[in-house]
Design brief:
The chain has 124 residues and is mainly alpha-helical. The protein contains six helices and two strands.
Protein backbone atom coordinates (compact mmCIF):
# COMPACT_ATOMS: atom_id res chain seq x y z
CA UNK A 1 0.00 0.00 0.00
CA UNK A 2 1.40 3.39 -0.98
CA UNK A 3 0.86 6.09 1.62
CA UNK A 4 0.22 9.66 0.58
CA UNK A 5 2.11 12.29 2.52
CA UNK A 6 0.76 15.83 2.64
CA UNK A 7 2.85 18.92 3.20
CA UNK A 8 1.89 21.65 5.61
CA UNK A 9 1.30 24.02 2.73
CA UNK A 10 -1.42 21.72 1.39
CA UNK A 11 -3.34 21.67 4.67
CA UNK A 12 -2.43 25.09 6.06
CA UNK A 13 -0.70 24.21 9.33
CA UNK A 14 1.61 26.40 11.40
CA UNK A 15 4.93 24.51 11.46
CA UNK A 16 5.92 26.10 14.77
CA UNK A 17 2.76 25.07 16.63
CA UNK A 18 2.75 21.35 17.59
CA UNK A 19 -0.96 21.48 18.50
CA UNK A 20 -1.73 22.71 15.00
CA UNK A 21 0.22 19.77 13.57
CA UNK A 22 -1.66 17.22 15.67
CA UNK A 23 -5.01 18.81 14.78
CA UNK A 24 -4.06 18.67 11.11
CA UNK A 25 -3.16 14.99 11.27
CA UNK A 26 -6.51 14.35 12.90
CA UNK A 27 -8.27 15.99 9.95
CA UNK A 28 -5.99 14.48 7.30
CA UNK A 29 -6.20 11.02 5.81
CA UNK A 30 -2.43 10.96 5.28
CA UNK A 31 0.58 11.66 7.50
CA UNK A 32 1.85 15.21 7.42
CA UNK A 33 5.41 15.97 6.39
CA UNK A 34 6.81 19.18 7.81
CA UNK A 35 8.76 21.51 5.55
CA UNK A 36 12.44 21.84 6.42
CA UNK A 37 13.38 24.50 8.94
CA UNK A 38 16.37 26.59 7.97
CA UNK A 39 19.42 25.89 10.09
CA UNK A 40 20.28 28.75 12.42
CA UNK A 41 23.37 30.65 11.38
CA UNK A 42 26.48 29.49 13.16
CA UNK A 43 29.83 31.11 13.74
CA UNK A 44 31.71 27.83 13.55
CA UNK A 45 32.03 26.27 10.07
CA UNK A 46 32.05 22.72 11.48
CA UNK A 47 28.67 23.26 13.14
CA UNK A 48 27.31 24.82 9.97
CA UNK A 49 28.43 21.83 7.89
CA UNK A 50 27.00 19.42 10.44
CA UNK A 51 23.67 21.26 10.28
CA UNK A 52 23.72 21.09 6.48
CA UNK A 53 24.32 17.34 6.54
CA UNK A 54 21.52 16.84 9.05
CA UNK A 55 19.21 18.97 6.89
CA UNK A 56 20.02 16.70 3.95
CA UNK A 57 19.26 13.60 6.04
CA UNK A 58 15.89 15.07 7.01
CA UNK A 59 15.24 15.88 3.36
CA UNK A 60 15.98 12.28 2.45
CA UNK A 61 13.58 11.04 5.14
CA UNK A 62 10.87 13.34 3.78
CA UNK A 63 11.56 12.07 0.27
CA UNK A 64 11.22 8.46 1.46
CA UNK A 65 7.88 9.38 3.01
CA UNK A 66 6.66 11.14 -0.16
CA UNK A 67 7.67 8.10 -2.21
CA UNK A 68 5.66 5.79 0.04
CA UNK A 69 8.67 4.28 1.82
CA UNK A 70 7.33 5.24 5.23
CA UNK A 71 9.37 2.60 7.11
CA UNK A 72 12.62 3.96 5.66
CA UNK A 73 11.51 7.48 6.54
CA UNK A 74 10.71 6.44 10.11
CA UNK A 75 14.09 4.76 10.57
CA UNK A 76 15.97 7.77 9.23
CA UNK A 77 13.96 10.15 11.44
CA UNK A 78 14.78 7.95 14.46
CA UNK A 79 18.45 7.91 13.50
CA UNK A 80 18.55 11.71 13.51
CA UNK A 81 16.72 11.85 16.87
CA UNK A 82 18.94 9.27 18.53
CA UNK A 83 22.31 10.27 17.11
CA UNK A 84 21.93 14.06 17.04
CA UNK A 85 19.92 14.95 20.14
CA UNK A 86 19.90 18.61 21.00
CA UNK A 87 19.88 19.81 17.40
CA UNK A 88 17.01 21.57 15.70
CA UNK A 89 16.99 18.73 13.17
CA UNK A 90 16.39 16.19 15.95
CA UNK A 91 13.43 18.28 17.10
CA UNK A 92 12.08 18.35 13.53
CA UNK A 93 12.53 14.59 13.20
CA UNK A 94 10.66 14.04 16.47
CA UNK A 95 7.81 16.21 15.23
CA UNK A 96 7.63 14.16 12.03
CA UNK A 97 7.57 10.93 14.03
CA UNK A 98 4.83 12.25 16.30
CA UNK A 99 2.78 13.27 13.27
CA UNK A 100 3.19 9.82 11.72
CA UNK A 101 2.26 8.12 15.02
CA UNK A 102 -0.79 10.38 15.36
CA UNK A 103 -1.82 9.47 11.82
CA UNK A 104 -1.54 5.76 12.61
CA UNK A 105 -3.59 6.27 15.77
CA UNK A 106 -6.25 8.25 13.91
CA UNK A 107 -6.46 5.51 11.29
CA UNK A 108 -6.98 2.84 13.96
CA UNK A 109 -3.53 1.34 13.46
CA UNK A 110 -2.88 1.39 17.19
CA UNK A 111 -0.06 -1.14 17.19
CA UNK A 112 2.04 0.95 14.80
CA UNK A 113 1.21 4.15 16.71
CA UNK A 114 2.12 2.62 20.05
CA UNK A 115 5.40 1.29 18.68
CA UNK A 116 6.38 4.75 17.48
CA UNK A 117 5.34 6.42 20.74
CA UNK A 118 7.32 3.91 22.80
CA UNK A 119 10.43 4.25 20.65
CA UNK A 120 10.21 8.02 20.91
CA UNK A 121 10.08 7.78 24.70
CA UNK A 122 13.22 5.63 24.70
CA UNK A 123 15.29 7.95 22.50
CA UNK A 124 14.16 11.32 23.81
Amino acid sequence: MTEVIQTLEEIEVDADDPRSLIEATSRSAAPVVLPPRPAPPSEEPELHHRAQVLDHLLGMARQYARNGSIRQAIELFFEVVADHAGTSQAVDAEEHLLAIAQHYEDQGELRQARGLYERLLKVS
